[in-house]
Amino acid sequence: MISEFVRGESIRQVLTTLQRGKNSSGVIAGGTEIMRLGSRADYTNLVSLQNLGLDTIKKVNGVVHIGAMTTFTTIRHSEVVPSYLREAAGFCASFAKANMATIGGNVANLRDDSYLLPTLIAAKARLIIADISVDGTYNEENIPLREYHEFMDHFSDSLILAVELNRKDRVVLNQRFSRTAHGNAAITLAFGAQIEEGTLKEVRIAAAVKGTGIIRLKGVEEGIMDGQFLEPEDAAMMVGSEVAFTSDVTGSASYKKYLLSSSVADLYRKGLALAEKGGKA
Ligand SMILES: Cc1cc2nc3c(=O)[nH]c(=O)nc-3n(C[C@H](O)[C@H](O)[C@H](O)COP(=O)(O)OP(=O)(O)OC[C@H]3O[C@@H](n4cnc5c(N)ncnc54)[C@H](O)[C@@H]3O)c2cc1C
Question: Which atom of ligand 1 is nearest to the CA of 115?
């Protein structure tokens, strides 16, 4: 049960409060996950990020900087946010939730049906994070989102200040499968690449697989870049060896395998078609 609610007045004060409260303290952004019935978050002390001015989007020298407190609705309507991220924000079908849910909260949440993480990983997004060491030294870092995701325990005391997209020509394609627009997704997939001289480079494929987690299909990524696959369907064959699927209310393990495999082939085919046209849709 929540016994203390503090309005954060500065980033440093938020971090100090978190450090003092150890595991019982957490930050609250939009609150859609923390306040959700059945949420895993069980903090007794909450620090609000509402007043820290972290809710702006700007584009400087081609880099899109999205404050951690930016809501899904603001992202959807922004003219500077790339269309692939606007599309992913649209995966949240509830207007009420989209008006509250933030990009920082979504990244930190690491849900296995995450709306945004596959897209952000495929886009090679970066995070600006802040933390405070035991001796009180304040530190800000710009790290790949991939690193935050892979070493989550290491960053559990960090505050996400912003998400940055610095690959202006990156192509990212998304697909999400759920029974209804409001339901939990069985699979959310994103395929990202740079297009150079008609070929796909720096391929990154990330998926949120319900019951399994957020995964990267590294074998498929490497196979595509090494030219191992004659047809997109050949890439799909590899998916089963990279992911352990489970059955749940969103679908059986074999259904999820089918969805992920066929959508990997589909997005790869679309990526090849874009590459042929030099990246133009
Ligand atoms: C009915 C319902 C269905 C949902 N379905 C989905 C779904 O299908 N997919 C999905 O991805 N989400 C879903 N959510 C969860 C939620 O709406 C989103 O994940 C949302 O983006 C969380 O953002 P928030 O700002 O509301 O986070 P909050 O609830 O405020 O916080 C979530 C977590 O992130 C931490 N946090 C927040 N901001 C930061 C920060 N800047 N730095 C570090 N840690 C931070 C908090 O301490 C907390 O642990 C659902 C929620 C509800 C109520």
Answer: 11
pTM: 0.95
C-beta of 30 in contact with ligand 1 (< 6 A): yes
Q: What number is the average pLDDT over the span 147-174? A: 94
Summarize the confidence of residues 8-26 as an average pLDDT. 89
Q: Higher confidence at residue 280 or residue 187?
A: 187
What is the Cα 121 distance to its own chain's centre?
6
Nearest to 206 by CA among 194, 193, 223: 193
Give 147's pLDDT tier (boundaries 50, 70, 90). Answer: very high
- SS3 of residue 60 by DSSP: strand
Cβ atoms of 92 and 74 closer than 8 Å: no
Choose among 159, 169, 162, 156: nearest CA to 197: 169
34/164 Cα distance (integer angstroms) = 24
Spacing, Cα 173 to ligand 1 middle (Å): 23
Any ligand 1 atom below 6 A from CB of 250: no
From the alpha carbon of 41, which atom of ligand 1 is closest? 49
Residue 163 Cβ inside 6 Å of ligand 1? The answer reads no
| CB 28 near ligand 1, within 6 Å | yes
Residue 210, token pair as written in the block: 């319900």
- Average pLDDT over every residue of 185-193: 98
The rounded Å distance from CA 31 to ligand 1 centre is: 7
